[in-house]
């Protein structure tokens, strides 16, 4: 029993710390919410929790008592703190997204495995990259003919948006964030094979 209460205490102390940090950072950025905005958000969360309990065949009381709460009031008050924290965190994350440099990019993935048809994968990737850079082959035709990423073939190789310092693909990030729009890379070896990437659009953080 003591261990259970201790774990619960430690859990809520950590949550309180995160909530206080989120609140402090939000205030620094000028993010504030009126009591009415928070109350409205809390009502939606509680309504969702009640509905979720109903769908699982449990009463709302069973739902909060199983989580160690002694009363519905204590449960709702805790959920309200969660809601307030999550609203602040969501806005902070969105603000971070706006302020981070981004790049829209496309890629072509080629195999790095040699076989009878393709005995020198890197040489083949280099030849294709040079043709694209020199304009001897269009990007669209190269994607359809060579790319092995079937998720992006029908989208001309378009992957989407990459945030700066957001992936472990260092070489690709370095190329994308250091070259102008329209630039095409040499083959970059990754866990997926040889990737040729194109900078479609650069978006500066605000």
Backbone shape:
elongated
Given as residue ranges, the uncertain stretches (5+ residues, pLDDT < 50) are 1-6
Helix count, DSSP H or I runs of 4 or more residues: 7
**How many β strands by DSSP?**
4
Main beta sheet, described?
4 strands, antiparallel
Strand order of the largest sheet: 2-1-4-3
User: What string, H for helix and E for strand, traces the elements in order?
Assistant: HHHHEHHEHEE
Strand percentage, roughly?
Answer: 5-15%
The percent range for helix content is: 40-55%
Note the gap between the termini.
Answer: 51 Å
Radius of gyration: 26 Å
Class computed from helices, strands and strand pairing: alpha+beta
User: pLDDT average, as an integer?
Assistant: 80
Structure, explained:
By secondary structure, the chain is α+β, with helices and mostly antiparallel strands. The protein has 7 helices and 4 strands. The chain has helices at residues 2-28, 35-55, 60-66, 72-99, 121-134, 139-146, 170-176, and strands at residues 102-110, 158-163, 188-190, 193-203. A 4-stranded antiparallel beta sheet has the order 2-1-4-3. 16% of the residues are buried. Mean pLDDT is 80; it is low at 1-6.
Defining traits:
206 residues, alpha+beta, 4-stranded antiparallel β-sheet, 7 helices
Write a compact overview of the structure shown:
The chain has 206 residues and is of the alpha+beta class.
